[in-house]
Amino acid sequence: MTYSQAILGGDRLALARLLTQVENDVPESRTALIELFPHTGKAHLIGVTGAPGTGKSSLVNQLALYYRKTKEKRVAIIAVDPSSPFTGGAVLGDRVRMRDLSGDTGVFIRSMATRGSLGGLAQSTANMAQVFDAAGFDIVIIETVGAGQSEVDVARLAHTTLVVEAPGLGDDIQAIKAGILEIADILVINKSDRPGVENTEKALKSMLELAHPTERVFQHHGQSMRTAAPRQDSSSAPMWIPPIQRTVATEGKGIAELAESIALHVAYLTQSGGWGLRERARLEVELEALIREKLLNRFREDVPQKRYDEILEKVIQRNISPWEAVRMLIDK
Amino acid sequence: MTEKKIRVLVAKPGLDGHDRGAKVVARALRDAGMEVIYTGLRQTPEMIAEAALQEDVDVVGLSILSGAHMALTPRVMELLKANGQSHVKVFIGGIIPDEDLLRLKEMGVTGVFGPGASTEDIIRDVQMAVAG
Ligand code: B12
Ligand SMILES: Nc1nc2c(ncn2[C@@H]2O[C@H](COP(=O)(O)OP(=O)(O)OP(=O)(O)O)[C@@H](O)[C@H]2O)c(=O)[nH]1
Ligand SMILES: [Mg+2]
To answer: Within an 8 Å CB–CB cutoff, is residue A1 touching chain B?
Structure first.
């Protein structure tokens, strides 16, 4: 039996092993991804991002519990933590906050290190999410530390992105980066049992007013492309303005309301055509990346290493420019 | 294609709250380039086996300073086997009396480390066990 057959049949060990292969991008994983692709496109991808320690894992734990208990949805979680840039190793600690979910076969938690890959993180996370999607998980939650571009790219995979803030992270305006607000569909103020909630909410509100989410940024042909958010006859359905939700993840407070916001966002995406737009953007980026990889491989096969090195050396000596080098290497 | 990383689950089974050793070992393995999934305190053998499966780890490390190792270890070994993960190497650390060493080895435990064990030795043994 192949991996994909086993996974479609509900084999959890096969699922775990394929996730490893996909993460390591071994050639065999491609075969399985091809076979699983027709079974994808059903799951709701939820991104959860925010500064370290804001309570993302605790929140994911509560959300997953909520979806299990009240909606009977199957939930997969991809919890991403940074790799050490010096040793390449990582301590992945998000499971510590998710112990309530163990013993439930309707939940599958997978920890993942960023591995410092240049743009590769978004791709492997996307592929892992597809595997969960095919395996029949209704909801795939992706937790990332909202620090750098790669995390923003990961958040863009999601249909719904939650940006988690917490009061008392020093200067509120400093902590809330405009870039991260741009990707937020829902703003969560977690730890709202702590002093300073009012200030955080005020700061978020004024940032929101500045940000005016009238357009969305998608990666297109490797560049950011701004797409006007789909408009509808303004009388019936208004634009999506990211709501601000207060939660106390450690006590499960505000979780039902947060889930309600998420459901409203899904309804909005479905009605406005935004769902299709996001799927389209995501698949286009994926196709683009695969084409680039293939062309690069073909180029490497076509052009002998020796010739490549010679021309590179000429560029380094400033005998020819990189543009001329490309002409010589590709147009021949 | 990226290089395969050694994935290790470090868990604290039972009610034992001594977590310094587990954290020291987790960090040492990270600094040796491994990906360490840390589960935190109060894990049942069932929780540990489930995490080992979901994370597809190469190694499970149990840190036990409560004296309950002879009850907890066999259960973890059984569950790993039942889940199809008999290839996973199991290491134990903490307060383990010498007279239990042989029986732990017979259960299939790969390595046992007590107080004062050097992290270099732990790293080397883990790397060797995974290399096979
Ligand atoms: C510090 C300490 C505490 C601290 C713990 C703080 C914490 N968060 O960890 C506090 C004060 C809270 C504490 C409390 C208790 N403690 Co205490 N504690 C110790 C002490 C002095 C040192 C432990 C330690 O942190 N060592 C430093 C770390 C780095 O070493 P380590 O854990 O041994 O880890 C090394 C190796 O064992 C190995 N290793 C460990 N884990 C792993 C995992 C893997 C995968 C690998 C490969 C290797 C490995 O590598 C590490 C590096 O060398 C020991 C005595 C001792 N000398 O060991 C007693 C000791 C462990 N405690 C003991 C007891 C009885 C208790 C209490 C029950 C006391 C009481 N009556 O209240 C409570 C129980 C607390 C609880 N909830 O479990 C006894 C246990 C007796 C037994 N098992 O038979 C000991 C042995 C003291 C004694 N001689 O009686 N304790
Ligand atoms: N007071 C309070 N503490 C909370 C709340 N939510 C989480 N915490 C605590 O905040 C700490 C960090 O929580 P995590 O859930 O691990 O946060 P995280 O954002 O996932 O952290 P990283 O993954 O390390 O970035 C833990 O000690 C939690 O118990 C909350 O609503 N109120
Ligand atoms: Mg976390």
So the answer is: no
